[in-house]
Specification:
This protein has 14 helices and no strands. The chain is mostly helical and 365 residues long. Helix 3 packs antiparallel against helix 4 and helix 4 packs across helix 14.
């Protein structure tokens, strides 16, 4: 952890911009994937691609983390892994932007598309966990929930405004969107490396054998990611489906379920920063336990309730979700030895993607 009591805001803000570029890139990918599969005549491979995507999201972060940690152990630092991933993602985005200009792609151009998609998925997950793992260098341990709240708010706002962002993406079209996505990732990655290079190098290169007695609890970290990923998947992907299956709820809210879910996500974003402050005062673990219990109870109860009682549960969930959003990652950092930080955060993100990947596959069947 950062040994000073100062938050390195320059490095944090550069990481926030990088995370924003990642979120927008994922939104563009999910928006255009079905249409591009049809254009390149790979529609029948949608399910295998979703399975491949899930496998890549599961295995790549820990592998990237293991490589980064080994580089640190040998006297280097983790930034080269971030640099390689960022540069490769930018290149793939540009290549895809060019290939989709062809009206009737065939031959090598057609087969280049699925290869580029697979490589893009790998590259995106090569640098994500090493980049996010640097947070603990820039923030004092007690202030970590407040800074994590910024990243949670960003993710919530992107999800809440997705209908508007999708309209903007559709307006510009696939080639411009992918080209801009590549430029955003490259530009934000450059700013992050420039802002954090000296801090990361000094932290990683002076890090010797572990001074503390704690040992890394990888299984616990995996389940932290699994739970918060499950809560997010239910909130972002399954809530609209559950509302559509409940005519009484739809009658009460009077708007499409997707728009109402966006409102709930926006509410979660509003409460995220106060939850970060609350975590700092009452304790991260205590707030995480409360948020987890409420989240599980709400999700379970929604399977058996309808109408107004269900609507009350939907309204309660954003508070619990905000509590989990700001506490789970700080707890993961606390359960890892310094020499295992990047690998451990990679395991966290592996767990995070499990249910989301499963839902993506099941929705295509």
């Amino acid at each position: 952890m950062n040994s000073t009591q100062e938050i390195r805001w320059k490095a944090i803000l550069s990481l926030v911009f990088l995370d924003l570029a990642i979120l927008i890139s994922w939104l563009a990918y999910h928006e255009y994937q079905p249409a591009l599969l049809t254009k390149f005549q790979f529609s029948e491979f949608a399910v295998p691609l979703a399975i491949l995507q899930g496998i890549i999201l599961f295995i790549t972060p820990p592998i990237a983390g293991l490589v980064a940690d080994k580089m640190v152990k040998k006297g280097g630092n983790r930034l080269p892994v971030v640099t390689i991933g960022i540069n490769f993602v930018s290149m793939v985005f540009m290549v895809v932007a060019v290939t989709i200009l062809f009206k009737e792609p065939s031959g090598i151009i057609r087969w280049l598309f699925p290869i580029m998609v697979a490589l893009w998925l790998v590259a995106m997950n090569i640098f994500h966990s090493p980049a996010i793992s640097t947070i603990e260098m820039f923030v004092p341990e007690k202030k970590l929930p407040i800074v994590i709240a910024i990243f949670a708010i960003l993710a919530d706002l992107i999800a809440a405004t997705e209908p508007v962002l999708v309209d903007i993406i559709d307006f510009f079209g696939a080639p411009i969107t992918f080209a801009v996505g590549g430029a955003l990732v490259f530009g934000s990655g450059f700013l992050f490396q420039r802002a954090s290079k000296k801090l990361v190098a000094n932290h990683d290169e002076v890090m010797g054998p572990p001074a503390d007695e704690k040992s890394s609890n990888f299984l616990f970290v995996f389940f932290l990611g699994l739970f918060v990923g499950a809560f997010m998947t239910c909130f972002f992907k399954l809530f609209p489906n559950w509302m559509d299956a409940d005519p009484a709820v739809l009658e009460i809210i009077g708007i499409p379920s997707g728009y109402f879910t966006s409102i709930l996500i926006a509410i979660a974003a509003v409460f995220t920063f106060p939850m970060g402050i609350l975590a700092q005062k009452m304790g991260t673990r205590k707030l995480a336990i409360i948020g987890t219990i409420i989240s599980i109870m709400v999700i379970s109860a929604l399977q058996y309730t309808h109408g107004r009682p269900a609507l009350i549960l939907y309204g309660l969930f954003p508070l619990a979700f905000a509590a989990c959003s700001v506490t789970f990652l700080p707890i993961a950092f606390d359960r890892l030895e310094k020499r295992h930080t990047v690998f451990g955060i990679g395991i966290f993100f592996s767990g995070f993607e499990v249910l989301a990947s499963l839902v993506d596959v099941l929705q295509l069947l």
